[in-house]
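Dear H.,

Thanks for agreeing to be a second pair of eyes. The structure we're designing against is below in token form, covering all 493 positions.
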């Protein structure tokens, strides 16, 4: 074998996406609220875009004479397909810096500036006040306590390590909070400071273990206080595994007393700091609404009325055809108009695709809409792609982060794509159906003789659903259903 360096010519085929195709995919993937924001951003960045008013959409066939309306010859000058697309999707961070400075006839956009200012004002007016954090809440309580400055300083360091995301547990070593070369007396001070922090509200805060957290919340006025104390100290794991006969033997109390004491655990919080987590509840706005027509068929309607309808500015079309316009001005307008046209086409293509995809899904999942979730049919994205006549990745983008309002509630579009298994009679059964049947069996079982996973396989088989034991175990855990031993009721009726 001989190695050499040289130049050679080879022909290679590579697939590249045009900027227009990339923008179409981006627009298709946006949910309706994000699309609305994107359109508003594009209007602010591209002066060639205008919002088409309602009167323009009235369908009036009698066109009024508009002195700014371009002629057919002028319209032909707008976009040329043979131009380079390299810079068509650059976003203007500063419109003034890019726009040629010697344009005398460019109109100002004071109305857009005012609209943006109004939106910002509304946003600030409606902004939610930042909720008080766990650390702030504890610091305010600490500041009201009459303790010496040294203890207060250590307590503040302890509070600074607490995190609401892990329930407010103290996970740091006390020694790590002290200065190098600290004495045992300093460590004792730190222990005292930790006790002070643990005495603050909420009860159980700054605990080092689950047992310590629960014990710090117990007070003598609890029913079964003594039994609860022993259960928390010595039998938490046995309690979690429902090993009540073992606890009965070790503690010398009846299972009935243990069960009654266990009910008191509902008054204890294993993660007291979690109440200070900032929970973000996303706004769900349906992209599609399902309605039943007079013939009893389900039809879909896009909910995109809040997305403004765009058009190209007649003023700039006319300016492009103006013989007095400079070459620099013409190039700027031509490029911006082409970008605007691509956006308008991408939005229209999104409407058509989402409409077709949603309609195909609804027609396939008619049983779900008629009879309920347990009648959902197994469905793959490839099946809808074959019906609509697009690639499966287009289906994935079309349903991504989009919601559909149906007579049975609002669901993500992805909810209707479910895997399944084949029943004994050869029919495909969705995993959602199996999940609902499994939950129903567990809810109705005899808790003194709960179904094992093998028993659940047999019970589902009686319903015509053939499922492997490992699959039952997987779904039981996924649904948070305890094992048969943990579900067993040890008290004999």
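And this is the sequence the design step returned. I haven't edited it by hand at all.
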């Amino acid at each position: 074998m001989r190695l050499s360096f040289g130049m050679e010519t080879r022909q290679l085929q590579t697939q590249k996406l045009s900027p227009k195709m990339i923008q179409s995919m981006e627009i298709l993937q946006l949910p309706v609220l994000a699309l609305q924001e994107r359109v508003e951003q594009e209007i602010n960045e591209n002066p060639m875009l205008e919002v088409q008013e309602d009167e323009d959409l009235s369908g009036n066939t009698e066109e009024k004479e508009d002195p700014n309306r371009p002629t057919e010859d002028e319209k032909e000058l707008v976009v040329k397909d043979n131009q380079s697309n390299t810079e068509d999707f650059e976003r203007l961070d500063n419109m003034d810096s890019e726009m040629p400075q010697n344009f005398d006839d460019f109109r100002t956009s004071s109305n857009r500036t005012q609209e943006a200012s109004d939106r910002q004002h509304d946003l600030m007016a409606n902004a939610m006040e930042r909720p008080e954090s766990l650390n702030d809440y504890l610091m305010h309580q600490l500041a009201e306590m009459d303790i010496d400055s040294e203890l207060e300083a250590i307590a503040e360091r302890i509070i600074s390590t607490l995190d609401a995301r892990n329930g407010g547990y103290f996970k740091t070593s006390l020694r790590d909070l002290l200065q190098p070369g600290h004495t045992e007396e300093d460590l004792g001070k730190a222990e005292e400071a930790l006790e002070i922090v643990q005495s603050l509200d909420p009860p159980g805060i700054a605990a080092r273990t689950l047992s310590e957290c629960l014990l710090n919340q117990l007070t003598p006025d609890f029913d079964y206080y003594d039994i609860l104390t022993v259960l928390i100290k010595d039998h938490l794991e046995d309690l979690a595994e429902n090993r009540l006969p073992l606890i009965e033997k070790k503690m010398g109390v009846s299972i009935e007393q243990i069960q009654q004491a266990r009910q008191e655990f509902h008054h204890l919080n294993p993660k007291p700091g979690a109440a200070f987590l900032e929970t973000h509840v996303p706004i769900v706005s349906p992209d599609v609404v399902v309605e039943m027509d007079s013939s009893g068929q389900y039809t879909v309607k896009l909910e995109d009325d809040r997305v403004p309808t765009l058009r190209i500015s007649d003023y700039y079309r006319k300016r492009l055809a103006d013989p007095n316009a400079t070459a620099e001005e013409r190039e700027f307008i031509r490029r911006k108009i082409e970008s605007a046209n691509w956006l308008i086409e991408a939005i229209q293509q999104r409407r058509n695709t989402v409409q077709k995809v949603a309609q195909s899904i609804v027609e396939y999942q008619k049983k779900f809409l008629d009879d309920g979730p347990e009648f959902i049919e197994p469905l793959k994205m490839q099946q809808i792609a074959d019906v609509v006549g697009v690639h499966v990745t287009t289906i994935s983008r079309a349903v991504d982060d989009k919601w559909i309002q149906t007579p049975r509630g609002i669901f993500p579009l992805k909810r209707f794509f479910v895997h399944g298994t084949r029943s004994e009679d050869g029919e495909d059964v969705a995993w959602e159906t199996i999940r609902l049947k499994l939950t129903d069996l567990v809810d109705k079982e005899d808790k003194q003789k709960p179904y094992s996973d093998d028993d659940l396989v047999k019970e589902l088989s009686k319903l015509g659903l053939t499922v492997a034991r490992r699959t039952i175990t997987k779904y039981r855990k996924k649904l948070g259903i305890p094992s048969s031993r943990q579900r067993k009721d040890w008290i004999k009726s």
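Two observations from my side: Confidence is low (pLDDT under 50) at residues 61-110, 123-128. The two ends are 86 Å apart (CA to CA).

Warmly,
E.
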